[in-house]
Design a protein that fits this description.
Elements: E1 6-11, E2 31-32, E3 36-58, H1 66-70, E4 80-105, E5 112-117, E6 123-126, H2 156-159, H3 164-187, H4 197-219, E7 221-233, E8 239-248, E9 252-254, E10 262-270, H5 279-286, E11 294-309, E12 312-331, E13 340-345, E14 352-358
Antiparallel strand pairs: 1-5, 2-3, 3-4, 3-7, 5-6, 6-13, 8-9, 8-10, 10-11, 11-12, 13-14
Helix pairs in contact: 3-4
Length: 361
């Protein structure tokens, strides 16, 4: 989805932080307020793509004669549908962290500051145009191959047979004739040999197609289609072997609490890449009567997300995780009239991606 940005022209130095840690998005809307502006930092959710293959089996017209005439065992006589997971992918997605909402007050004594916010209120840039994030390419299943109607290859003798048994018997003879002609072509002993390799290939392909079509009258056909199911995981802490979804071979993807399906699990581990906050120092800051001015940004941690079933791992990925990191303050001095400062934040993590500060001439 194309992001819509709105610029907030603020005549301000970031005088104070009045919303921190306990403010919900439902209580304070991002954007311009009477006192200044409200913005949020992001956290990471995990977007999981599950590719499920659906197979529809239709028995052939002569399936009950498969063993008698072609020695094919265990040919199903009834239609059925089965499902299986063929791939699992996971990607990080930024969403608003409602525990990290901040307000800045206006101060007319400072230079104008432009704040670029995302549609949901995440701070993206200051005095700069945020880069456009790469859009996810939607999954598209492969185009279906046109099916072949085997009845197009039944000759007059087969069609005029008085019973299914006789039709099956004559069809098998036709299959064996096709295979014999194919072998004669390969050995160079056919009555009508092709003039060149291209013609030879065309003739072999035609014989193979007819053989396959007629054999399907005994073996039946399977039509396959792949669908994508999207799931979202919000890891606010470690997750230990949580059921992500279940798969029923007969019903497909079912809810995590539906015991008709086999469970697929997810484990999310905080990799502890960011040192914990010094609680004593944080408590001293809170006691100050006048909060320190500036802009808050994320110092993101990292997490490892693993999706598995039994001992089979479908996807294991290391992802950025602002919720497993800290928040730091960029001093308001960076944005006073002595500097022209441009700030870009990483749109996924809310961390500083680029910072430019110039002294005006």
């Amino acid at each position: 989805m194309t992001k819509r940005y709105f610029l907030l022209s603020l005549l301000s130095l970031f005088a104070s932080t009045i919303l921190w840690a306990q403010t919900a998005l439902t209580d304070y809307r991002p954007g311009v307020t009477q006192e200044g502006a409200v913005y949020f930092l992001p956290k990471t959710t995990i977007s999981v793509s599950v590719l499920v293959e659906k197979s529809d089996y239709t028995p052939g017209e002569f399936s009950n004669y498969a063993m008698r005439y072609l020695r094919l065992k265990d040919v199903e006589q009834e239609p059925y549908t089965t499902y299986r997971v063929i791939a699992v992918e996971q990607e990080p997605v930024a969403v608003v962290d409602t525990t990290k909402g901040y307000a800045v007050k206006f101060n007319a004594k400072t230079v104008a500051v432009n704040m670029a916010l995302s549609e949901d209120g995440r701070l993206l840039a200051i005095n700069a145009k945020p880069s456009q994030p790469a859009e996810r390419v939607a999954f598209k299943s492969a185009p279906k191959v046109a099916s072949i109607d085997p009845k197009n290859f039944l000759n007059e003798e087969i069609l005029s047979a008085g019973s299914s048994s006789k039709m099956a018997e004559l069809t098998v003879r036709e299959i064996y004739d096709l295979r014999e002609n194919r072998n004669l072509l390969i050995k160079g002993q056919a009555d009508f040999m092709p003039n060149d390799g291209a013609q030879m290939k065309l003739m072999l392909n035609q014989l193979e197609m007819q053989d396959r079509a007629l054999t399907q009258l005994f073996t039946g056909t399977v039509e396959r289609d792949t669908i994508e199911v999207m799931l979202t995981v919000v890891p606010d802490g470690n997750i230990q072997k949580q059921v992500l979804f279940r798969l029923s071979q007969k019903l497909g993807l079912v809810d995590a609490d539906d015991l008709s399906g086999e469970p697929y699990y997810i484990t999310v581990e905080n990799m502890n890449t960011v040192p914990p906050v010094d609680e004593d120092a944080a408590a001293k800051i809170k006691k100050k009567k006048v909060p320190e001015s500036g802009i808050y940004v994320n110092v993101p941690g990292r997490m490892r997300s693993t999706i598995f079933k039994d001992k089979q791992v479908f996807s294991s990925k290391e992802l950025p995780a602002p919720q497993f990191g800290n928040v730091e303050l960029l001093s308001g001095e960076l944005f006073n009239k002595h500097y022209t400062t441009r700030l870009w934040l990483n749109q996924l993590t809310g961390s500083v991606e680029k910072l430019e500060a110039e002294q005006p001439k």
